[in-house]
């Protein structure tokens, strides 16, 4: 799973606070899969993540029209790419749990991805 997530990183996304661009992680997928898998497994078992993974740089991105209007901006959180990969692993585990245990009734599937 880690290899697949790294291989499919969007290289057009911004780098994290550590200055590592997603393209670097994508290009080094074969080298990084094993060490990152160990880190993710340890995080899962201990229920702890590195402190840096909890930090985000929040920036305002202008949506459209008047730049003077604060309502025309949206916040974007820039986090570390390895943390984003960990989030995807956790999301996948949650979604499979929801699907396998029929946690959400069919009438509540409005906000679920079509694949689940």
From TrEMBL:
It comes from Grus japonensis (Japanese crane). This is Mitochondrial enolase superfamily member 1. PANTHER family: REVERSE TRANSCRIPTASE DOMAIN-CONTAINING PROTEIN, TRANSCRIPTASE, PUTATIVE-RELATED-RELATED. It comes from the Eukaryota.
């Amino acid at each position: 799973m880690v290899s697949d997530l790294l291989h499919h990183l969007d290289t057009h996304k911004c780098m994290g606070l550590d200055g590592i661009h997603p393209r670097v992680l994508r290009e080094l997928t074969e080298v990084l899969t094993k060490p990152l898998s160990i880190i993710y497994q340890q995080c899962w078992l201990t229920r702890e993540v590195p402190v840096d993974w909890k930090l985000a740089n929040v920036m305002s991105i202008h949506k459209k029209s008047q730049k003077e209007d604060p309502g025309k901006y949206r916040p974007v959180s820039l986090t570390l790419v390895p943390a984003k990969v960990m989030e995807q692993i956790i999301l996948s585990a949650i979604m499979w749990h929801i699907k396998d245990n029929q946690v959400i009734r069919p009438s509540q599937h409005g906000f679920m991805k079509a694949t689940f």
